[in-house]
Amino acid sequence: GNVLLIFGNRRDEERDIRGILSRDGGQTWETEKQMRLTTPVTGDFGYPSAVVMDDDLLIVHYMAGEGADTYDGTKAKCFATLVPIEEILKTTK
């Protein structure tokens, strides 16, 4: 079955939360087909997690703050974005 790995992309100039898909239960990964799941993020960010809702919608939530590359919990906020499952499967084909 399909497995989605989500992670904080810190390598590119536009840092964001991304996902890669495995269509064979995690045996192989479509690493060349990364999908952007959020808009670009500044400051400290990451720790994404996701929940499938009603089999057709994925909610991705993550932390982002203004503390540059050092964590400062007083400046951190939680964000969430909704992504249709169909869009994820289509994007990575």
Write the layout of secondary structure elements.
Elements: E1 3-9, E2 16-22, E3 35-36, E4 45-53, E5 57-64, E6 77-84, H1 85-91
Report a brief summary of the structure.
It contains one helix and six strands; from the N terminus they run ββββββα. The protein is mainly beta and 93 residues long. It has one domain (3-91).
Order of helices and strands: EEEEEEH
Number of domains: 1
Strands, count? 6
Class based on secondary structure composition and strand pairing = mainly beta
Strand order of the largest sheet: 1-2-3
Helicity level, as a percent range?
Answer: under 10%
- Identify the overall geometry: globular
N-C termini distance = 15 Å
Q: Biggest sheet, in brief?
A: 3 strands, antiparallel
* Overall radius of gyration: 14 Å
Low-confidence stretches: none
Number of helices: 1
- Compute the average pLDDT: 86
Estimate what percentage of residues fall within beta strands: 35-45%
Could you describe the 3D structure shown?
The protein has 93 residues and is mainly β. The protein has one domain. Helices cover 8% and strands 44% of the residues. It has 1 helix and 6 strands. It has a 3-stranded antiparallel sheet, covered by helices on one side. It has a 3-stranded antiparallel sheet with strand order 4-5-6. Strand 4 and strand 5 form a beta hairpin. The chain is globular, with a radius of gyration of 14 Å.
Which features would summarize this protein structure in a list?
single chain; 93 residues; mainly beta; three-stranded antiparallel β-sheet; 1 helix; 44% strand; globular
